[in-house]
Amino acid sequence: MVKKIDINCDIGENDAITADELALLDYVHSVNIACGFHAGNPAVMQQTVKNAADKNLSIGAHPGTLDRPNFGRKKVTLTGPEAYNLILYQIGALSAFLNVEGLTLTHVKPHGFLYNQAAVDAELAHYVAKAVYDFDSKLKLYALSGSQLAAAGEKCNLPTIHEAFADRRYLSADQLVPRSDDNAVITSTDAFIEQATKLIFDQQVISIHGEVIKLKVDTICIHSDTPNILDLVKALSESLKKQINY
Where are the extended beta strands (E) located within the chain? Predict the structure, then answer.
């Protein structure tokens, strides 16, 4: 029997909460809330925490670089200690809103450049994992499956959650297709369902080069800013309901 897998969503990345974001909460199990650096703001953080809590979702921090014009996705020069401080600062900010509500932060997932660079840069990955561990060693670290960040999390004994993507294409086991490539984001319903179900049931993904990549998959990410994501995840939900033993 295939176990149900966590579906997580990067969210709270607008200046105000949208209707589609609210609707997405009915189709995911955990959320990664922007902490005001790459996107979001205190009001959105507060309301997204409350909305996620109302749905009994696991709530995580989604820290990024301080680069709002580029949504935290542009390459920046960042030392390990600088990354450590960025992570620590943003986890603390989101945790304040959870504390007021009597809630507990469950996980941390870096955003954008910080996430992708830590996937291949062992030194940066160490500082990211260390920041999470130093804040709370019981926090789960969401990391790209098979990446340097996943290895760093496991090395410092963090509960490490290996993540794969339903709406992003892969170059290799530890590298997504850059968003500058027109082929980076999956917007076709059929392709979205095919990739998600292959990840869930086979623990595999097909790279853009046709290579079959075996992955450890504990959670699958969707992005709230992927075009038509609400329709895509609704279609996936209906497809999974029809799967025997799911």
Answer: 6-11, 30-34, 58-62, 107-108, 140-144, 160-165, 170-172, 175-176, 204-206, 212-214, 219-223
